[in-house]
Amino acid sequence: MSLSEWLVDKRKLLLSNKIKQSLNSQSRNLWIKCNHCGLLMYYKVLEDNLKVCPKCFYHFPASSQDRINYICDINSWQSCDLHLSSTDPLGFADRKVYSERLIDMKAKTYLSDAVQTGIASINCISVACGIMDFRFMGGSMGSVVGEKLTRLIEKATYLKLPLIIVCASGGARMQEGMLSLMQMAKISSALYRHSEASLPYFTVLTSPTTGGVTASFAMLGDLIIAEPNALIAFAGRRVIEQTIKEDLPDNFQTSEYLFKHGFIDLIISRTSLRSQLSRLLELYR
């Protein structure tokens, strides 16, 4: 075999391998396996069921845009404060400089930060909505998340609108230190003024909702709603066990456990959340 023939065969082999890899990748994206029951389903089946397993009702993670589509009327979403974006006030660096991490997150998620805020409607009822996105640095609450939510609450109070915040967060953003912890008080103060205006506020806790978000606005709703089997906590399980020197129940920090002990009001599946929110909003009109 001549060198030219060998090169041609080599190129054909490489091209064939690339095609196979591409087909395998597409196949993996088309079929999704449930982590809980093992059901293998076509991706459109999962999408049509709002990313809830049709067999065991496991709730797959959903982006903020997904939740906007699931909850709000079509084309009703009007974004607020899209231009707000975090900076690096402390010059924080761990394995990566915080400013670089922000750039990476923006490129990966197409979001400016870990929450989307806007005015929308649910079955023609106008509402102010804040929807957190766990994909952006674990949904952590930094100064921009706090500012966007505070502005949203103040706008809802001014326009006399009900308020809904969908929580998905690992807590306060450590890269912003005390500036992130300050957001807990700032958001809570705005919520107090919203309550004084006799306007309703609902929170929807998704998995996970933890840390400073749980310790502030997530638990201040007039109605606190959670998705099934959502992880809802302040401190981590191991931290609590080591502090109290006791083993905790297996279902500790789940929405079902919290509902049983009176910390949340309702557990509603994602597939029926829109209709239930509509009914609840009607009661408060």
Reading the helices and strands in chain order gives HEEHHEHEEHEHEHEHHEH
DSSP summary, beta strand count: 9
- Cα radius of gyration in angstroms: 22 Å
**Low-confidence segments:** 22-27
Helix/strand-derived category reads alpha/beta
Count of runs of 4 or more consecutive helical residues? 10
Helix content: 40-55%
CATH superfamily: 2-enoyl-CoA Hydratase, Chain A, domain 1
Strand content: 15-25%
Query: What CATH first level would be assigned?
Result: Alpha Beta
Catalytic activity: N(6)-carboxybiotinyl-L-lysyl-[protein] + acetyl-CoA = N(6)-biotinyl-L-lysyl-[protein] + malonyl-CoA
GO molecular function: acetyl-CoA carboxylase activity; ATP binding; carboxyl- or carbamoyltransferase activity; zinc ion binding
Function: Component of the acetyl coenzyme A carboxylase (ACC) complex. Biotin carboxylase (BC) catalyzes the carboxylation of biotin on its carrier protein (BCCP) and then the CO(2) group is transferred by the transcarboxylase to acetyl-CoA to form malonyl-CoA.
Family: Belongs to the AccD/PCCB family.
In short:
By secondary structure, the chain is an alpha/beta fold. It has ten helices and nine strands. Helix 5 (143-159) runs parallel beside helix 6 (178-196).
